[in-house]
Input
Amino acid sequence: MFIVDDILLSPFKGLYWVFNEILNAAQEDQAGEANRITGQLSELYMMLETGKMTEEEFDAAEKVLLDRLEAIKEREDDGEDESSEDDDSEDEGVGIH
Output
């Protein structure tokens, strides 16, 4: 019986694996984007200190990078909030009857 179940469910298990891999790749990409932005901020600070960039140019470039970094953090926080809401909704259905 278990062999038949495995055969019937294998397409769904395969799809689940594919979607899980896509999710992992997207999460890694977001983490990589945050690291790249942090590196770009470090480069901006170096350019300002070495005089290759004016204060106004620095402020404009820094604002853009910080806005992007903040958007990434908000997306991460929204993802955590949604997962905790899902956990809470599962707990509400459990009770003593």
Notes: Residues 33 and 50 are 26 Å apart (CA to CA). The helical segments are 2-50, 55-92. Residues 93-97 have pLDDT under 50 and may be disordered. The longest helix spans residues 2-50.
